[in-house]
Amino acid sequence: MERSAPVADRTYFQCYVYACPDDQHAAVSAVLEDGYGLHLEYTDAEPQPGRVSLTSPYIAEEITVGSAGLIAAQLRESAPGCAFVLWEDPKFNWLGTLEAYAPHLGSYSGDCDANGEIVYSLGAVDQVVRGAGGDASTAADTVRGAVLDALDDAMGGPWIRAWRSAAAADSAPAGPPPAQTTLAALSPPAASTKRPSTS
């Protein structure tokens, strides 16, 4: 369910900035800390002055529902070279909202649960699968690969993997533990599960 503007309800919020050019740290800090009063979840992870943490989440125990999209837009505008994943938790009958951005991938937005996992309805999944079906002459493996690629993109797979890859490269804790985000495990075992090359 899409929200166009914040509403009066409040919910938990977190933002992981995992890459940022040196000259854009101040802009990120201005949005997160000065603009929205976010703070680092772990006080022992304070970055050097003039820097933002690239390993620990910025959080708010209570933020206005609908703020995720506004904060993401401000980060993209103020610091277009940074990469982030942020989300607000579900509240009452609303799902949460996850926003992600990386300069080489662009923007992603989707409904999520309290752990930042994308939530798709059956209707939405059906649309993704039908949109990736190809023509009747397409081989079964190619169709399966196209469906898996489409679902992976629709569920934010490239953005989540980019974030987890950056977190794994650093020895400091950086949010949830790495998890299987590719959908290849869902393909039927009878045929090859190797996805076709796109090159």
In short:
The protein is α+β, with helices and mostly antiparallel strands and 199 residues long. The chain has helices spanning 25-35, 67-78, 122-131, 140-154, 157-169; strands spanning 10-19, 39-40, 58-64, 83-88, 96-102, 106-112.
Topology (elements, then pairings):
Elements: E1 10-19, H1 25-35, E2 39-40, E3 58-64, H2 67-78, E4 83-88, E5 96-102, E6 106-112, H3 122-131, H4 140-154, H5 157-169
Antiparallel strand pairs: 1-3, 1-4, 2-3, 4-5, 5-6
Question: Helical proportion?
Answer: 25-40%
Mean pLDDT: 80
- Give the end-to-end Cα distance, rounded to a whole number of Å: 37 Å
- Tally of individual helices: 5
Shape: globular
Rounded radius of gyration (Å): 18 Å
> Which sequence of strands runs across the widest sheet?
2-3-1-4-5-6
How much beta, percentage-wise? 15-25%
List SSEs in N-to-C order.
Answer: EHEEHEEEHHH
Stretches with pLDDT under 50, minimum 5 residues: 177-199
Tally of strands: 6
Total separate domains: 1
Largest sheet: 6 strands, antiparallel
Which oligomeric form is depicted? Answer: single chain
